[in-house]
Amino acid sequence: MSNLLKSYSSYMEACTDCGVCTEVCPFYKITGNEFYGGRAKLKAAYSLYKGEELSEEEIKTLLLCTRCDQCNQMCPAQIPISEIVAAARGRLKELGKVPGKYLVIAKNIMEASSPMAAPPQDRLTCLPEEFKPPRKAKYLYVPGCIASFRARNAVKAAAELFMKLGLDFTVLGEKESCCGLFLADIGMIEEAAKLAEANTKLFEETGAEYVITECPSCYDMFKRVYPKLYREPNYKVLHVVELLHQLLKEGMLHFKDGGGEEIIVYKDPCPLVRRHGITEQPREILRAIPGVKLVEYKENRGDAVCCGAPAGVKPLFPDLAAKLAEYLVNEAVELKASCIAVACTFCLYHIVGSLKERLPIPVKTISQIVLEHLG
What we know:
The chain has three domains: 3-94, Fumarate Reductase Iron-sulfur Protein, Chain B, domain 2; 101-246, Rossmann fold (3-Layer(aba) Sandwich), CATH 3.40.50.1860; 252-373, Rossmann fold, CATH 3.40.50. It is an alpha/beta fold. Helix 14 crosses helix 16. The protein is built from 21 helices and eight strands. The radius of gyration is 20 Å and the shape is globular. It is 51% helix and 8% strand.
């Protein structure tokens, strides 16, 4: 049996069966089914650890998890449920009981450098034509796979913004590779560690002082996970909202007055708020824009509801993932918001893609909004 799952045995045995983790689970919120909550996932993982045969529903509840960490945050026994879920998925893979889609995605990452096996050279096509990446720069901008191949306008907006601000930045282009989040999500730790080593060395070879990420999951992998899997790097990792917040404080962001009120609701990304405590920087950026009125979801900051897409949930359970996207959009409409602001290209791609022509208001990244209002 996987030593990874074994290492969590004392945590699984410490569960007091209080059910708090079920109440906060996004999939319980939209279905009312307790079997989709954290407690059921923990029990299924424990059964797996004990060598018991899992039912189809027990396997499903382990797969139906975005690892948003809301359950971890609320557990009074401080059980790292989402980490246990990843370890249990690794055990399921050992037993040959994970869906074929999982194996395809993992193979794509390891062999083609992205979950969707897109042509590496296409990473450059989302950048402004006039941008010619220098060989060396202070900032290395790493958009990530979802942004580069599924949310290209967000990458283009960020690059245009950096150019207007006169930032010294470059990109890896076709050399960029997946961060390996999905591998970590399904318990393929050795494979994720190989990417951690390769990417860390690649980033360092550029000589950049800062690695700027568009995707919060890339940010979490580079900043928190890679040092555990490989070593501390000689560069600093910043999410794009951290960089923009720094520039705002330095007086480099100057906004024009739009002449009217724009109501914006901000959707907190799970990795930024629950793993890194980044909550106020994006809000301060939005409040600094003349004419913008910032409103809040009922569940915000550390209590924010996951969009429903990460950790392999979207390809396996598209209908349930789409329900969470709709849940978020419906509340935004109730708040009379004219735009949903996100700091996550996964949220952007998923919400827009799930509702398509039914989307009543636009979803934009912080970079897109800042670029639109830049003076």
